[in-house]
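Example 3.2
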Amino acid sequence: MQPIHTSIEIGLPAPIRVLHASDTHLTHADARDGQRKVDLAASRLRGFPDADARLAELGRLSHQLGLPIMHTGDLIDFVSLANLEAAKAFADSHDIFMATGNHEFSLYVGEAWEDADYRNQSLAAVQACYKNDIRMSSRIIKNGDAAVNFVALDNGYYYFEPRQLAFLKEQVALGLPVVLMIHTPLYERKLYDDARARSGSCAYLAGVPDELIADYDPYRYRQQKTDATTAEFLEYVAGEPAIKCILAGHLHVDYDSTFAGRPQLISGGSVARVVEFC
């Protein structure tokens, strides 16, 4: 794994470096979860055959470079005892700060409508794997007089909640530069066009204008339609100068995008990105 190197100028007196990764998609299961989940693991492994190797290399890079891992979700592909054990073992032995993705709470991939009630079936078990609150938390990283506040929010289901917006405003009020960590990238027209062309069906972004999702199939339209709180959240982010950068994933491609004039860096999962804020 040769990491991508990206430098973001935000006016710091000294550089702060992190390792951004996303969408590892571990696919482990064993007899403890039953045959259905074992079969699911075998099926999903075909899509992510090198997930374990990529996670091991991510850990090696983190130790070698002395950098914390800022992971923007889908470290596991679905909930199983074996996947949760692997995630916890990695988190216990590495410096990782987590913004969760939709697959973190997937019991059987694509088997049900995914909403708060669905997520809450596995939230406690998934949360137990990590040291930070995987739905909403912050971490301040310093280097001498320089400091950046990394704010991780769960938008794996394409929306933001009122309490997440309130939390982000509280973090901005601390007066530090903010890097927003989310799973699903925020709508930007070029990103939308490229993502939709790549998928052939929909863009898989948060905050897409309704006229651009009108021809989605009914399931994807319902899934990705922007609600009022999400629209308010995006308006706040667009107008808040303290938010300097967005780290995201979900699309399974490495992509440099923007949102309201600030960088939006998307990790595809096959490599890690060394991001230097300076």
